[in-house]
């Protein structure tokens, strides 16, 4: 296989005369620059350097107005001096000139690119990558920068980024064969000969006269086990996904499956990728091909059921999971999701049984205990719901939404002391949560601690002056502490708000009751 260890890039030239004609005639600067360009074009680089340096000196000492040059033009001269040195393999000196160019005009993309070329020639790959990235900041479609980045990343074995920049180079210059050729070398070095041949053929298709810069020697191709080659596909796809190039990752998965149709892990990962893009029918088709004996079978069936649930087909989703559970009776997640589907279909008693089985199989799963408690609550089994939620909070003490619901359940049972303890912990994490402030205030009122309830209700009303429940209970608290005038004032505001609301909604006035934030 051809070597990919040497990174050799050509410095870029510029259309220097464009916009610079004003100093090209009748000045010592113009004469020196013109002589430098003529020497440069005939590859007399030593002479070109002397003339370009003379041009820079003339720009500083020549008093004529025409000899005054802009920073862009000065940077271009530095760039050509650097190129003249680079073509003589004097890379350290060229590097200094390119640094002068980018410092003089930081917006000159070609100067950043040539700086990267110098770093690459000196073996400083990380700095070369940084310079090429900076180039793309100023010219995102510069073919040479994308190609150079692809080669640099290939050098440090970062296959994902190499693949991305080679692809971007192909997009920037569709008739360029070289990036496709190097993509082929990258695949071939990992034994993916089918992908490699596809890239080589594509290179010749877009550029029939292409001659490889590194001809393949007459030696055996890299030989790797099928498993090693498959892992290359997985690693490359994962790298592409992590960097947000899902279309490219999909292409690699499909190439792997074309080569090995029974690579079921790839089908599962491809299904996940398609599902994230909301291509549910395609994802379902990939999941469906995974056989029962495969390790991803259950997870695939769970995802298939989720797709059916999104499509408002709970019965079909349940039947799919039920069939899977018959083959995998000890998989707790199956029963957890079956319980959700049964609840969706209004079969709460059956849902409770499914959640009970899930809890048996996954005794440390907080969500399973929570959902079991939720269904018990809907069935009116408050004691059982309370026990399930206590366990859920014990397993997931940071689940503050669950603590809120547990506190509400304590209120329903008249255990305001226990409810207050839960709401206090919720407020420690969510100090601005209005509803928690209200519920804690309610607990203090019922515990005959109106002095602690009053500031909480007042906080609620500062943020929501039309919170009828807070008005009612705040008035009641002030009556409890003996402040009759203020208590009556709040109750009058409450009566006025309720009458106003009733007039708008056609409802009769009623005493407020607290509400839970239970979720399904």
From TrEMBL:
Domain of life, source organism: Bacteria
InterPro entries assigned: CellSynth/LPSAsmb/PSIAsmb, TPR-like_helical_dom_sf, TPR_rpt
Gene3D superfamilies in UniProt: Tetratricopeptide repeat domain
Spans of repeat TPR: 75-108, 109-142, 177-210, 332-365, 366-399, 400-433, 434-467
Keywords per UniProt: Repeat, TPR repeat
Keyword Repeat among UniProt keywords: yes
Claim: Repeat is one of the keywords in the record: yes
Pfam family, any one: TPR_16
SMART domains registered for this protein in UniProt: TPR
Protein name listed in UniProt: Tetratricopeptide TPR_2 repeat protein
């Amino acid at each position: 296989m051809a070597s990919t260890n040497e990174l050799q890039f050509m410095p870029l030239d510029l259309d220097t005369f464009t916009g610079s004609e004003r100093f090209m005639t009748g000045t010592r600067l113009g004469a020196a620059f013109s002589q430098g360009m003529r020497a440069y074009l005939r590859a007399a680089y030593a002479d070109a350097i002397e003339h370009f340096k003379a041009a820079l000196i003339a720009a500083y000492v020549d008093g004529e107005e025409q000899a005054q040059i802009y920073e862009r033009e000065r940077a271009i001269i530095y760039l050509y001096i650097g190129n003249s040195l680079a073509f003589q393999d004097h890379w350290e000196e060229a590097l200094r000139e390119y640094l002068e160019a980018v410092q003089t005009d930081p917006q000159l993309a070609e100067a950043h690119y040539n700086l990267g070329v110098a770093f690459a020639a000196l073996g400083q790959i990380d700095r070369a990558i940084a310079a090429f990235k900076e180039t793309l900041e100023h010219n995102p479609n510069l073919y040479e920068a994308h190609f150079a980045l692809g080669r640099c990343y290939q050098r440090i074995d970062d296959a994902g980024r190499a693949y991305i920049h080679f692809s971007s180079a192909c997009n920037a210059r569709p008739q360029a064969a070289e990036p496709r050729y190097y993509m082929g070398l990258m695949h071939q070095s990992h034994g993916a000969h089918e992908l490699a041949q596809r890239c080589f053929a594509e290179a010749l298709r877009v550029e029939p006269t292409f001659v490889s810069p590194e001809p393949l020697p007459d030696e055996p191709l890299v030989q790797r086990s099928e498993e090693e080659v498959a892992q290359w596909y997985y690693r490359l796809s994962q790298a592409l996904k992590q960097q947000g190039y899902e279309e490219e990752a999909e292409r690699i998965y499909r190439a792997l499956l074309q080569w090995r149709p029974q690579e079921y892990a790839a089908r599962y990962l491809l299904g996940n990728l398609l599902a994230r893009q909301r291509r549910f029918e395609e994802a379902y088709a990939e999941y469906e091909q995974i056989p029962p004996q495969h390790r991803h079978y259950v997870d695939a069936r769970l995802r298939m059921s989720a797709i059916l649930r999104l499509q408002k087909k709970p019965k079909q989703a349940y039947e799919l999971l039920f069939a899977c559970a018959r083959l995998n009776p000890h998989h707790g997640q199956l029963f957890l999701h079956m319980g959700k589907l049964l609840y969706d279909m209004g079969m709460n008693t059956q849902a409770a049984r499914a959640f009970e089985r899930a809890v048996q199989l996954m005794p440390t799963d907080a969500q399973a205990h929570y959902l079991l408690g939720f269904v018990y609550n809907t069935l009116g089994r408050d004691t059982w719901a309370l026990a399930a939620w206590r366990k859920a909070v014990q397993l997931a003490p940071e689940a503050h939404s669950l603590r809120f619901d547990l506190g509400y359940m304590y209120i329903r049972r008249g255990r305001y002391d226990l409810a207050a303890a839960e709401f206090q912990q919720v407020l420690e994490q969510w100090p601005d949560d209005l509803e928690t402030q209200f519920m804690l205030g309610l607990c203090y009122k019922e515990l005959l601690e109106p002095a602690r309830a009053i500031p909480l209700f007042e906080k609620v009303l500062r943020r929501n002056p039309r919170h009828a429940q807070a008005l009612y209970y705040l008035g009641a608290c002030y009556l409890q502490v003996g402040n009759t005038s203020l208590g009556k004032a709040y109750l009058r505001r409450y009566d006025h708000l309720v009458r106003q609301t009733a007039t708008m909604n056609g409802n009769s006035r009623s005493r407020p009751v607290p509400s839970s934030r239970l979720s399904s």
